[in-house]
Structure formats: structure tokens, C-alpha cells
Amino acid sequence: MNPPPTTLLALLKRPRDEQRLLAGMTYHIPLEQAKHFHGTTQIALYVGSWHPQSPFCVRYRATIVDATICTRAAYILDEPMHPRATERYLVLRVSNLITLDPVIPSERWRRISVHRINDDALARTPELGQIQRTSRRMPHSTDAWEW
After folding, report:
1. Where are the domains of the chain?
2. For the whole model, what pTM was predicted?
3. Bond prior to 4 in cis (omega within 30° of 0)
């Protein structure tokens, strides 16, 4: 039996990350957090307090179409002196980006990094904190990846 489809739940940390997503249809994840990516075909993106229209919610969803590995400096050209400029990142190219309407608010969760969640649980949850009650923890595997 195949495992249920999963979505990668990730954080848009800053307005610049949202701008990169909207302009270039890409999202980047530090390679050490990329173990959660394996086997996912969708990404849902959470925005924090910085977002003017809808803070603390899952605002976007997209299909992952490609993934590459590069240094942060090679991907984000305008930040060559960033403290993590030489670290490797997984860069996801996405398509079919939609702004969720309604968004999925988060009344309790404020700190989100990268998680895998069941597609069905994400689709039916009215509040992000309820995913813990509606979805079992999804296993991850790095066996198929050779960094």
C-alpha cells in the first residue's frame, strides 16, 4: 500500500522570501532541513507576523516541479555576504501557486520550520494547530537522497 500523499509545510520568513516566490516561483530550504522534502509533491507556505494582510497563517500552496542543490550565495545573488552564503540549500521550483482563500490561520503555532503533513488533513483543517489532532505524524526518509 502506498503512503498517503504529503505536503511540505514551510515558512516564508521574510517579505523578500515572498517576493522571490511570487517573482521566480522558487523556494529555498537549508539542506539540513531538506530531509522532510523527500516524497512530497506539494508545498504549503506559512507566513508569520510580518505579513500585513494575513499574519500567522498558511497563505500559499503550490506544486513542486523540480529541486536543485546550490549554495545560498548562488541562489540569492543580492546577499553575497550573508552569514550562510556558503551553506548548501535545496531550491524548489514550483508551479500552480495559489493564494488560499480562506487562509488556514494559526491561533497557537507561531514557530514553524519545515514539516510534512498529510494532504487530506491540510485540506480539511480549519486551524493549523488542529493538524496535530487530524493527521498522524508523517515519517521521513533520506535513504533515496545522496547529498
Report:
1. 6-134
2. 0.81
3. no
